[in-house]
Write a structure and sequence with these properties.
Layout lengths: L1 H21 L3 H6 L4 H35 L1
Helix pairs in contact: 1-3
Length: 71
Amino acid sequence: MNIVALILMIVGALNWLLVGLFQFNLVAWIFGAGTVVSRIIYSVVGLAAIWGIAMLFQRNVRHTAVGAMED
């Protein structure tokens, strides 16, 4: 699940890169602006980002716990 979330976050970030540099929204171009499918894709990418935030804190907790055990 972590890898899927990471891939979705990368795809979302690359889409924002295209928007920022070229004013080109790939998701809207493929699926149409404001369509149900594009809204679902944006929602899934957003949920992946929330999952990524959780992954970030899990890794910090594990790293901190390992570091404390070494001391």
